[in-house]
Amino acid sequence: MTALTERALDGARVLVTGGAGFVGSWLCERLLDEGAAVWCVDSFLTGSPDKVAHLRDRPDFTLVEADVSDGVPDPGGLDVVMHLACPASPVHYLRRPLETLRVGSVGTAHCLDLAERHGARFVLASTSEVYGDPLEHPQRESYWGHVNPIGPRSVYDEGKRFAEATTAAYRRERGVDTGIARIFNTFGPRMSLDDGRVVPAFVHQALLGEPLTVAGDGSQTRSLCWVEDTVDGLVRLACADEPGPVNLGNDTETTVLELARTIIGLVGSSSTIEFVPLPEDDPKVRQPDISRARERLGWRPLTDVDEGLKQTVRWMHELVGPDGAAPRA
Ligand code: NAD
Ligand code: UDP
């Protein structure tokens, strides 16, 4: 892998929105390890202070409760603003459609204003969902996507597309130094057990010995990336002079049914498989083309998916305990 930084994070002042969420908590930790001072701004809409409790005593870490759709607190002297705040699980954003649209639109503009004020680099955590139910496979950054603009998932997909458009406009019109990451399905410890995403849902069901709820016939595909790999891509993008968009994901593609069988095997569970209705507009395939991230960021995922799943199973097993009673993670 090539050298990590065109600019150094050691001593940098970085604000992370959504820092008390799943990906954000790993990102804050990595930034602190790189020597940055980190302001973690979160409304705890879908995240929790528990996810960053292990960082609380680190002197360069500050946790601030705020809804970035109302405005972003300004600690002063920022070098980088990383905007991750947004419900990311379909269960969460379908339950909170207006908040999701607001944080993608108004929230993103507030974060860009903050970056502009400080001459800071701005990184947007966008998503593979901008490709919708894709007609091109695997998905390259040049693909414009296939999104139903009024379907239930549109609050997330179009919110992120609006966020990308806003980011591109601030770059063009105001010269803000921006980078857009299109993150593909990411998994690992500290996902909320109740957020409905496929990995925590299946692992939890397998640990409880309950049927794994496979949507549709399970032939739809996803490509799962270990969280520390995704975070490494975000950090590289923060340090690079690269506007993106850049796909960040693991290009190992699997069907949801295969994933269910793998997880049952890894847990050693007696769970069966139950087929449940496919959610509306659920993408049929998803796999990143990661050539751009390889070439421009020197990035590639390093963790084998099965190894990541094993670590996730171990973490969740410890969390839920022998009786399977799961506190909110
Ligand atoms: P998450 O739900 O665990 O984290 C999102 C965080 O944002 C939460 O802590 C939540 O409380 C916070 N938040 C939401 N709205 C807010 C607001 N208005 N103001 C302040 N904080 C707010 O989700 P995640 O999986 O960690 O995703 C993080 C980011 O990465 C999201 O922007 C998501 O769209 C993007 N992403 C994630 C994945 C993935 O597979 N995890 C894939 C693609 C894109
Ligand atoms: N899925 C499933 N059972 C579940 C949760 C999800 O079969 O309990 C499917 C879902 O329909 C989708 C895939 O797994 O096809 C990935 O879903 P997830 O919510 O993790 O993320 P998405 O890629 O849809 O944003």
Automatic annotation (TrEMBL):
User: Which organism is this entry from?
Assistant: Nocardioides eburneus
A GO molecular-function term, please? UDP-glucuronate decarboxylase activity
> Which residue range or ranges hold the NAD(P)-binding domain?
15-312
> What is this protein identified as?
UDP-glucuronate decarboxylase
Q: How does it sit in the membrane?
A: Single-pass type II membrane protein
Q: What Pfam families does the database record attribute to this sequence?
A: GDP_Man_Dehyd
Keyword Membrane on this protein?
Answer: yes
The similarity annotation says: Belongs to the NAD(P)-dependent epimerase/dehydratase family. UDP-glucuronic acid decarboxylase subfamily.
For the protein in the UniProt heading, the enzyme class is lyase
Q: Could you tell me which pathway this protein works in? A: Nucleotide-sugar biosynthesis; UDP-alpha-D-xylose biosynthesis; UDP-alpha-D-xylose from UDP-alpha-D-glucuronate: step 1/1
Q: Does the keyword Nuclease apply?
A: no
Primary location class: Golgi
Q: Which UniProt keywords apply?
A: Decarboxylase, Golgi apparatus, Lyase, Membrane, NAD, Signal-anchor, Transmembrane, Transmembrane helix
EC number(s): the record gives 4.1.1.35
The superkingdom of the source organism is: Bacteria
Which compartments is it annotated to reside in? Golgi apparatus, Golgi stack membrane
Please list the cofactors this protein needs: NAD(+)
